Amino acid sequence: MTSVWELANPQLRELAVYEPGKPIEETARELGVDPSTIIKLASNENPLGPSPKALQAMRTALENAHLYPDGSGFYLRKAIAVKLSVAPENVILGNGSNEVIEFLGHAFLNPGDDVITCQYAFIVYKLLATAFSVRTIETPSPDYKQNLDATLDALTSKTRIIFIPNPNNPTGTLISQRAIDSFMSRVPDSIIVVFDEAYFEFLDDPPDTLRFVRDGRSVVVLRTFSKIHGLAALRIGYAVGPPEMTEVLHKTRQPFNANSIAQAGAIAALDDEAHLRETKRVIDEGRAYLQEQFADMQIPFVPAAANFLMVNVGDGCAVFQKLLQRKIIVRPLKGYGLPEWVRISVGTMEENKKLTAALSEVIRTR
User: Is residue 251 pLDDT above 90, yes or no?
Assistant: First the structure.
C-alpha cells in the first residue's frame, strides 16, 4: 500500500507543526479543574478582553450570520485607511495577519529562493519558507536584539523577502527608527521588506514604517486585531502596502477570508480609543511590576517593549510543567532554540502577582 507521505510534497516531511500556547480548556481537562481557575499567560492576549463596543457590534452582526460576508472588507478597510492616513487600496485583510504571510509566499516565493529573518524570530516565517521549498537565512541576534546590518550582509541573489518583526516575538526587543531608516536606505527595492508589527499599539514611540509604503517602496506592514484589540478568537488582521503590492496579494486570497463577525468587531474596536488606552495602561503597569519582581528574584529577563517578557528560568519545559500544576500557563521556548527560557504574557495585576508567587516557589524548589 502506498504511504501518503510518498504522495505528499517532500518538504512537508521535515516541517514542524506550529505549537500555539496551551489552551485553557485542555489544561482544565488534564487537571480536572474549572477552566475559570486557570491563568493563561502564554499567548500575549489582551487580559481585559475585547472592547465593549466590539462585543456589541459582534452581537448585532450575528443577526446576519446566514449571509456571506463582504468579500472586499470595504468598511473595515476604509476604517483602517482613515486611521492610518492611507488609501483603502493600500489595505488587505487576512484571517489573522498570519494569512497575509501566506499570501506573500504564494505571490512572491518559488522553490530555491531565500528569505531572511533574525535569529529567535516568530517561527511562522520559517514554517512558511519550508512549506514553499524556500531557504530561511537567520541572522545572529546578539543580546537577543535584531541586527539589521547583519541582515544586509546576508543578502543573496536569491533573496526575495526579509521579515522584520518589530517588536520581535518572543524576545520583545525593538528596533529603532534610526536603524530602520539606515537599513531602508541600503536595501534593494527588488526585495520585499515585511515589517511585522503585531504589537505596534503597545509602543510609546513607535517607528513609522508606513512612510515607506507611502513612498511606494516594496514594503508590507502587518498589523493584527488579536493583541491589543483583544479579538484573537476571530482571526482578523491586515497588511498595508503600495496598491500594486496589495493588488498582487489579493489574487492569492481566498473569497470571504475575513468573516462578518470579525469585520464588525474590528471596526468597532478601532473606534474605541478608551479601551486601547486602558489596555496599554494595564500592560505598562504590569510589565514594570513583572520586571521589578524578576529582578528582585534574580531571574534574568530581556527588557521588553510589548505585552510579554522572555525570562530565563534555567529549564523552560520543566518550569512550564510546574507552573501548569499550579494552574498557570506560560510558553516554553525550546522550539525557538531557547530551552532555558519561557515567555510570559503580561496579565491583570492579580494574575501577575499569582504568577510571580508561583514562579518564586518553583524556583526555590528546583
Answer: yes
Sequence-separated (6 or more) residues with CB below 8 Å from residue 184 = 193, 212, 217, 219
Say if residue 187's pLDDT is above 80: yes
pLDDT, mean of residues 92-106: 96
pLDDT for 116-140, tens place per residue? 999 999 989 998 999 999 999 999 9
Helix 260-271 vs helix 52-61: angle between axes, to the nearest 10 degrees? 150
Per-residue model confidence (pLDDT) at position 14? 74
Specify the length of the chain in residues: 366
Question: Smallest Cα–Cα separation from 146: which of 305, 315, 346?
Answer: 305
State the Cα–Cα distance between residues 308 and 312, nearest whole angstrom: 13
Our measurement of the distance from residue 188's CA atom to the centroid of its chain's CA atoms, rounded to an integer in Å, reads 26
Bridge partners, 237 (sequence order): 94, 224
**Alpha carbon distance 359, 329 (integer Å):** 11
The grid cell for 364 is 526555590
Least Cα distance to 301 among 364, 228, 227, 359 occurs for 359
Could you tell me the CA-to-CA distances from 29 to 35, 104, 192, 327 in Å, in that order? 8, 38, 44, 11
Quote the pLDDT of residue 366: 64
6, with CB counted inside 10 A (0-12, 13-18, 19+), is: exposed
In whole angstroms, what is the distance from residue 160 CA to residue 155 CA?
Answer: 9
Per-position b or e across 91-107, b if 16+ CB within 10 A of its CB = bbbbbbbbbbbbbbbeb
What grid cell was written down for 7? 504522495
Residue closest to 336 by CA, chosen among 169, 200, 197, 195: 169
Residue 190 CA, chain-centre distance (Å), reads 26
Element (H, E) at 159: strand 159-165
